[in-house]
């Protein structure tokens, strides 16, 4: 049946591909779409490319278990077939875990407003931070970089959740929730940077981030 159908893919980005840039990832997607052999919609013109939307690009080095992309199709296809064909075409590193045909009542990826992370931190010395004291500060000022400038911002209100999940010697695991979206977002590394700045004894050596959820007003884009 000819028409316009949008399919939403939830996928994982594993450690094997954590260091590819967003631009390289888009190139991988374009090749994957072609290899899949699925009836994907293409733009018109001299350089046609698949009509698709990535929810929120991942920072280089970050892994994830809850990424989303919407792809337009010219024909209706069974969701399971879309999942299987894309996983065969990706070939490893990126794993599609769910597919849903988008309907009128589904949330637009453009309305994404929150991201959750699990953050592994290596410290110079064993230390357990007092998260309550950190969050009770009057302000939490950090330098936030954009494409054109660097400015000091107060991210206290942006830290929606912050907790210590586990500790082992110099290593600890944090859980956090921060704003995410096209207009405004806070990277988890910025929160760790603020902790390093304001918490005495919290001296960071290395940070590894893993995105666990992308949400809109607390709701998932594909229910788990």
Describe this structure as you would to a colleague.
It is a single chain. The chain has two domains: 2-106, Alpha-Beta Plaits (2-Layer Sandwich); 112-219, 2-Layer Sandwich (Alpha-Beta Plaits). Helices cover 19% and strands 39% of the residues. The protein has helices spanning 22-36, 79-90, 131-135, 188-198; strands at residues 2-13, 52-54, 63-75, 94-101, 114-123, 141-145, 150-154, 161-168, 171-179, 204-216, 219-220. The longest helix has 15 residues, at 22-36. It is elongated, with a radius of gyration of 20 Å. It starts with a strand and ends with a strand.
What is the name of the CATH topology of the largest domain? Alpha-Beta Plaits
Instruction: Please give the count of helices.
Output: 4
Mean pLDDT: 95
Per the principal axes of the C-alpha atoms, what is the gross shape? elongated
List SSEs in N-to-C order. Answer: EHEEHEEHEEEEHEE
């Amino acid at each position: 049946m000819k028409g316009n159908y949008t399919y939403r893919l939830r996928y994982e980005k594993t450690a094997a591909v954590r260091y590819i840039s967003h631009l390289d990832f888009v190139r991988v997607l374009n090749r994957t779409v072609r290899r899949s052999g699925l009836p994907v919609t293409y733009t018109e013109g001299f350089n046609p490319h698949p009509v698709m939307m990535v929810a929120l690009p991942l920072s280089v080095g970050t892994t994830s278990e809850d990424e989303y992309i919407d792809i337009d199709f010219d024909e209706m296809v069974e969701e399971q077939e879309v999942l299987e064909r894309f996983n065969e075409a990706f070939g490893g590193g990126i794993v599609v875990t769910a597919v849903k045909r988008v309907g009128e009542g589904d949330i637009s990826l453009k309305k994404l407003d929150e991201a959750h992370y699990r953050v592994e931190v290596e410290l110079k010395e064993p230390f357990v931070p007092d998260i309550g004291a950190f969050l009770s500060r009057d302000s939490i000022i950090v330098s936030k970089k954009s494409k054109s400038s660097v400015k000091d911002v107060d991210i206290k209100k942006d830290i929606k959740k912050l907790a210590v999940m586990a500790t082992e010697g110099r290593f600890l695991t944090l859980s956090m929730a921060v704003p995410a979206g096209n207009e405004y977002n806070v990277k988890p590394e910025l929160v760790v940077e603020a902790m390093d700045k304001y918490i005495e004894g919290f001296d960071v050596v290395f940070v590894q981030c893993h995105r666990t959820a992308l949400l809109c007003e607390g709701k998932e884009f594909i229910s788990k």
